[in-house]
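Hey, sorry to bother you again with one of my protein questions. A protein chain has come my way and I'm curious about its shape. I'm sending you its amino acid sequence along with the backbone structure tokens. I owe you a coffee for this, so here goes:
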Amino acid sequence: MTFHYLESADDPRVSDYTTLTDVHLRKLREPREGMYIAESSRVLRRALAAGHQPRSFFLAEKWLEDLDDVFQAYPDVPVFIGKASLLEEITGFHLHRGAMAAMHRPDPVPLEDLLASAQRVAVLEDIVDHTNVGAIFRSAAALGVDAVLVSPRCGDPLYRRSVRVSMGTVFQVPWARLESWPGDVVQLKEQGFTVAAMELTDDAVDLDDLAARQLPKLALVLGTEGAGMSPETLAAVDVAVKIPMRKGVDSLNVAAASAVAFWELRPRD
């Protein structure tokens, strides 16, 4: 094992961990450099269990013993250790969830491969809040969604906040970034999926009515938090669906709505 004790925030060996609070910069940098950050001991263990490969580990000395088995399993991966104040200077925030790891970003999964055996697919259209992205992935993992597709402008599922909020379940659910949306609706339909949009339209059917159809293959599109579903998407899908609400409330947060919909629309034997 190779342990490196940090003495300066300018150490070029830990450039993967700099300015982690600059969301715009990290969204551009991490995919381009083929990496992502796993934040917290639990999350990095889930990333490793999913077969993802570490570039380095980054932690305060007090967490060394807790992760000794991980370091033993990856003896050639550098371990960077520093005082809490120095780690905070590098990252931009206080580390209180154990350790971090800079991970190699896995290769994209071809869309055709994701759809080949899937029955339930979620499509995230332009959802930019990483907390919502992570929460949707957590619900997808828990409630039997086979794959998640994200639009070109959607937030990065492997951004550290998405990963953290998902509790690492983003590593369990296969996902892919679409190249042409809503053009890719055509490919979903060609693969036998009924495509449903969660949107309050005049002709939207109730969620329980759609569930009663017991569709063998269903893709559920969830729209952005503010503007909702794009008109182009609504024109391309097969059906709009809504969650029946009590008077005075017209909608749920997109993450909460996803959990309700994933449960109600799950395949039934």
